[in-house]
Predict the structure of Integrase.
Amino acid sequence: MAIGHIHKVMKIVRDINGEHSEE
């Protein structure tokens, strides 16, 4: 599913930004 891919990308982006805040 595309949604799963989006969540994976968002997790990587947060990792790079150093923000681990979950919404």
Notes: The mean pLDDT is 83. The chain is about 70% helix and 0% strand.
